[in-house]
Structure formats: C-alpha cells, structure tokens
Write a structure and sequence with these properties.
The complex is a heterodimer of chains A (551) and B (105). With 551 residues, chain A is α+β, with helices and mostly antiparallel strands. Chain A has four domains: 104 residues, Alpha-Beta Complex (Sulfite Reductase Hemoprotein, domain 2); 149 residues, Sulfite Reductase Hemoprotein, domain 1 (2-Layer Sandwich), CATH 3.30.413; 92 residues, Sulfite Reductase Hemoprotein, domain 2, CATH 3.90.480; 137 residues, Sulfite Reductase Hemoprotein, domain 1 (2-Layer Sandwich). Chain A has 18 helices and 21 strands. The longest helix of chain B has 13 residues. By secondary structure, chain B is of the alpha+beta class. In chain B, strands 3-2-1-4-5 form a five-stranded antiparallel sheet. Classes of the chains: A alpha+beta (551), B alpha+beta (105). At the A-B interface, helix 1, strand 5 and helix 14 of A face helix 2 of B.
C-alpha cells in the first residue's frame, strides 16, 4: 500500500471544497452548463443516458480495505448499491446526483480517494499491472514509478489542456497484464547491461475509431530520466497534436502521420533541452516513494500446506484453484483473482455488500489489500496458501468464486447503450447472453483461454480491437448491428483483430460466436493450441466460412 | 442509435419531443407545453415540424438551470394519444437499463 503525504492529503481536501463551491454555483445558475462542464469533467463527472456518472480513480489498481469500504459506502448512500469497475482501473457510479456529489467526494477524500483527471483532456489515471509487487520474475514494483508519474502529472499546468486525453500504463513483467501497447505511452521496466533500471518506452498506441499498436520510441531510458523523457513526448504532442479535429487529436494520429522516426527526432530534440534539468530524478525521491509503499510481513510458510493438500479432494475447490489462483513471488503465498463475471451478470459490476464483504476478506486473508485489473476483475495479492480453502468458501457465498478467469465467459464489456450517451448499441446484454451460452465450466475449460471484448460504439471502451474475439456494436438503419473481429490481443504480443464478415443483428451475435468457437474446436491442431494461435495459423477465412456459409 | 450529441441539423420526420437531464440529479426529463420539465413522457410537448422543434429546443436550451443537454428525440403517438419513445435509445432512457440485475432503482 502507498501512504499519501501531507501534500497529497491537502490537495485532495482542497479539491473537494473547490468542487463543492462549483456545484453550488452551478445549481444556483451562477455557472452555466457550458462553464461548468469542463469543471465537472476535471472531477470525473459525466452526463450519461439516465443520470450523471461519477468516475473515481484507483491509481495503479491498488486499494486498501478502508478505501474499498468507502467505495461501497458511496454505492449504497449516493448510488443504487453497486459500482462498475472499468478497463482502466477506475470505478464508475451510474446514478449519482449532482447535488450530492460533493458529499460523496468528501467521503472518499477521507480515505485518500479522488476523481481528479479521470476525464478531460489531461493525463488520466496511471495504470499498472494488478499483480505489481507480487508477480514472480518482476524487475521491480512498477507502482513506484506509476506513483512518481502520478505525482508529477497531477494538475500539472502543462498537461491540463492537452489536445486530447492521455493515458500511461506501466508493467515490469514479461507477460503484459497492463496492456501497455494500447496506451498513449506504454512503459516496460527493464534492466540494461549494467544492471540499471530503466524503461523501454512505447508511444502512439490506442484504440477508438483509429486503432494503433504502440511503437517503441526508445529501447532504454534510464529511470532517473523518465520524467524528462515523458515530458519531452508530451511537449511534442502539445505542440503538434491536432486540436481542430477531435477524431485526429490523440497522439497515436500524430505518431502515425509524422512517422515514428520523425516523431522520435522531435522528442530527442526536446529532451536534449530538459534532460539535465530539475526533472532528473534523485535517488532520494525514488527512495522516498518506495518507502511510502508498505509490504506485508510475510511468514515463512511451506510450499504445500496441509490445508491445501486436504482441500484438493474437493473437485469444485480444485476447479477454482486451478483457474483463479496464481503463483506469488513469496513461497507459501498466492495471488487470487476474483472474477467479477458471474454467469448472466454485467461484467465488472460489484454490489456494495460484495465490496464490504471483500474488504473484510482482504483484511483477514490479504494483509488488507485489493487490486483492480484492466480486465474488470479484482485480485487479492497476498493470500497464504493455507487460507485458500477458507477464502474460496467465503467468496463462493458472496457469488465471487466463478472459476472463469481468462476463459470465454471472462468478458470485457463497456456499459454500452444501457448507460452510455455515446453508445450506438448495447454491450452488456450481449455479454450476459454469451456467459449463459458458455456457462458450463467443462466446456469453457475445453475451449481454454479466450478473451471476448465488447464495445457499444467505435470509441472502443470495451477494447474490442484487441479481444481474441472482438464485438463492436454499431447502428445501421436504426437497428443494433454487431461487427465481429478475431485475432486481436492486448498482451506483450498485442495485435488488432480482423473482421470476419458483415455485421449481424443483436439476436444473432451469440449464435455467431458459438459458430466461431465450434470452428476453432474443429480446427485446432491439439487441445493446447489456444484460440488466438489457431487464428494466427489459419487466418480469418475458415472462421468466416463457418459463420457465413449458412447465413 | 446515433447519439443525439452529434445532432447538428434539426430535421424531424415525425412527432418529436425535447428531452434532457435534470440538472440537480440528472434524471431524464421532457419539455412540457407549460415551459417546464417533467419526468413523465405523457406530459411532453409534441412538435411535428422543424420550426416547432427549433422553437421548443431554443426555449429548452435557455432554461440552463433546469435541465442540461436538451435535444430533439423522436416519439410515436398512438391513436389513443399515448406517447411512446421512437427508438431504442429513448426507450432505454424512459424505462431503464435492459440488463436485469442492475436495473432496480
């Protein structure tokens, strides 16, 4: 966990007072909506179909139990008893009243949570690997660097009015769980030949109506130089990024139009001026941030405790353990992923009661810490293996032990037309139907790792471009129509999916996905060949034939 | 459904209403003939041509404190005078999300 210092606490508290005054002036008519809009957006407040939506940041996906309880409290007191975890380590409340927002913000500020820069054309929440600090083989905890960048960019005047929103993600593992290649800047922590810590820097990734996979702009930037290098990128973007056309304003368009070589030269030139400035990071600064992260006092525990050995006789427990429990860097401990994808339910939703109960379980079994992943699931990062059976039973009672992590029912979906004012089509009901179709765990397990991503419009909040199967809802002649892509992925081998053919109607989507999956099962060379690998080997055609031959 | 946020030209093909979200709590409201806002679609003022629509929208935009983001939305008016939303988006705004569990108020 990270402990805020006095500067951060003051900033968060002052922000509440400021926003309270802004809301008061808006409700009295002193501020028009045009004047107020930019202010509310700077505090994570959107207007959606049914109500205001309030987006709260969970920096680098780390939550303390008092923070999760505060989110539950907001869901219960100010909303309709649940919250929605997003694909960028935020949580959204869908039914909040503007008049009550300052109170909600104040309640959250008491535990160091805020909504600054969760919307608007500024630096958004810096995201990271939800297994940061506990994943085996990690270079080092990427949250230290995430926090450094968060501090530097929060309310930074130069980054507060960018051409468009700007997103950074950081990973420190070979397997990318933070989707860094689809971010404006992706950072991968690495060591150079001297053993020094630094970053491979990627730039220009992003989805939306013009998707791009990020390109490596520099193979190694020393850790002490990372702020100046990021600042150089942002200055080039600020100078040349388009402000005349919202659809061409993201940095990915600039990188694409200039070309990575020219863009890189511009950045180098800018960097030359600022590299040896006050932006160079002292070791003391890093150590200060590092010291504010606390880590559990792990016990020395056996690799295979008796409790786990005995529980192995329970087939249901074993199904869950094999699916949802991952190795930890400390012997005797595990990382437990908690699926927020129960069969038939909206992906990423958690009720206030579930959040409270999960906070209790995290206190009991995970040193009071919870993580949020971009896949819209949660994780308990420090669970002793001996506690796994008891934890599983408790999670099961809460409806939080669905053993479908990374399987076909672990669907990423945006809120879609059920909530979102930008959406053209519904996402959540498609996800719900698909989870019902593939509810049988043996079937889902037989299919193996398969990520379905659904977006209800071209803005791609459900990251459909990088789903193994991507589903994009559009509108055609007043009807919802869905385009299906296959072959996308969001990890270290990130790729954009390819369209398999004409769009299909709402009622046909689940049938089409079943056809795609049946084709895969028939085409794969062996059970271990994952869907994504079969698509890579064979291309789109055999799937297209299967889907459209009878349609 | 094409987002009304992209609504630039006012061109209506049938009976329409002006809808928005109430400022203080964000709920869906409709402009009434009495120059106020109502959460009840049956109380909405119906416009049937572009000039009427423009006038109702202009009046609605002027009431910036009452509601935000007003736009023209299609409706269907039954033989009995009952007003129904004219597309899925407006149906969802009127009757709520279509996804079960999270729909309860």
């Amino acid at each position: 966990m990270y402990a805020y210092d006095e500067i951060d606490r003051t900033l968060v508290n002052e922000r509440v007072s400021e926003f309270r005054d802004q809301v008061k002036r808006r409700l009295s008519g002193e501020l028009t909506e045009d004047e107020f809009k930019i202010l509310r957006l700077q505090n994570g407040v959107y207007l959606q179909l049914h109500a205001y939506m309030f987006r709260v940041a969970i920096p680098y996906g780390t939550l303390a139990t008092d923070q999760l309880r505060a989110l539950a409290h907001v869901a219960r007191k100010y909303d309709r008893g649940y919250g929605h975890f997003t694909t960028r380590q935020n949580i959204q409340f869908n039914w909040i009243k503007l008049a009550e927002l300052p109170d909600a913000l104040e309640d959250l500020s008491k535990v160091g949570i805020h909504a600054m820069q969760t919307s608007g054309n500024n630096m958004r929440n810096v995201t990271s690997d939800q297994w940061a600090g506990v994943a085996p083989g990690e270079i080092e905890d990427p949250r230290i660097w995430s926090e450094l960048i968060r501090q530097h960019t929060t309310l930074h005047p130069e980054f507060s009015f960018l051409p468009r929103k700007f997103k950074i993600a950081i990973t420190a593992s070979d397997h990318d769980r933070a989707a860094i290649k689809i971010h404006d800047i992706g950072l991968k922590l690495i060591k150079n030949e001297k053993g020094e810590t630094g970053f491979e820097v990627l730039v220009g990734g992003g989805l939306g109506r013009t998707p791009f996979i990020g390109k490596t702009i520099k193979h190694f930037v020393h850790g002490r130089d990372i702020l100046s290098y990021i600042e150089a990128i942002l200055r080039v973007y600020n100078q040349y990024g388009r402000r005349d056309n919202i659809y061409k304003a993201r940095i990915k368009i600039l990188v694409h139009e200039l070309g990575i070589e020219k863009f890189s030269r511009e950045v180098e030139e800018e960097w030359r001026h600022i590299r040896n400035s006050s932006l160079q990071i002292d070791d003391e600064v890093i150590e200060d941030i590092r010291s504010r992260f606390t880590y559990p006092n792990y016990e020395k525990l056996p690799h295979m405790p008796d409790e786990l050995r005995q529980a192995a006789a329970d087939a249901d427990f074993e199904v869950w353990r094999k699916n949802s429990v991952a190795p930890h860097k400390v012997q005797g401990y595990s990382i437990v992923t908690i699926s927020l994808k129960p069969i038939g339910a909206p992906p990423g939703d958690a009720t206030a009661d579930q959040m409270d109960a999960l906070a209790d379980l995290a206190d009991k079994y995970s040193f009071g810490e919870i993580r949020v992943g971009h896949e819209q699931n949660l994780a308990l990062p420090h669970v002793a293996k001996r506690d796994l059976p008891a934890l599983w039973k408790a999670l099961d009672k809460l409806g939080l032990a669905t053993p479908n992590v990374n399987l076909i029912t672990d669907i990423i979906a945006c809120p879609g037309l059920d909530y979102c004012s930008l959406a053209n089509a519904r996402s959540i009901p498609i996800a719900q139907e698909l989870t019902r179709r593939f509810a049988n765990h043996e079937l889902a397990n037989l299919i193996g790792r398969l990520h379905i991503n659904i977006s209800g419009c071209i803005n791609a909040c459900g990251h459909h471009h990088v789903g193994h199967i991507g589903i994009l809802g559009v509108e055609k002649n007043g009807e919802e129509v869905y385009q299906i892509t296959i072959g996308g992925r969001a990890d270290e081998s990130a790729a954009l999916g390819n369209l398999i053919g004409p769009g299909v109607k709402f009622d046909e989507v689940a049938d089409v996905i079943e056809d795609v999956v049946e084709a895969y099962l028939a085409l794969r060379e062996r059970p271990e060949e994952l869907f994504i690998d079969t698509v890579k080997r064979l291309g789109v055609e055999p799937f297209k034939e299967r889907v459209y031959a009878t349609r | 459904m094409t987002s009304p946020l992209e609504q630039k030209k006012i061109k209506i093909a049938g009976p329409s209403v002006v809808t928005a979200n109430r400022t203080w709590d964000g709920i869906v409201v409709y402009r009434t003939a009495a120059k106020s806002w109502s959460a009840d679609l049956s109380e909405a003022a119906i416009v049937r041509n572009s000039d009427e629509a423009k006038a109702l929208l202009a009046e609605s935009v002027a009431d910036d404190v009452g509601a935000i983001g007003p736009y023209i939305a299609p409706v269907q008016v039954g033989a009995d005078g009952k007003i129904e939303p004219g597309n899925l988006r407006e149906q969802i705004r009127l009757t709520g999300v279509t996804i079960g569990q999270s729909a309860q108020a």
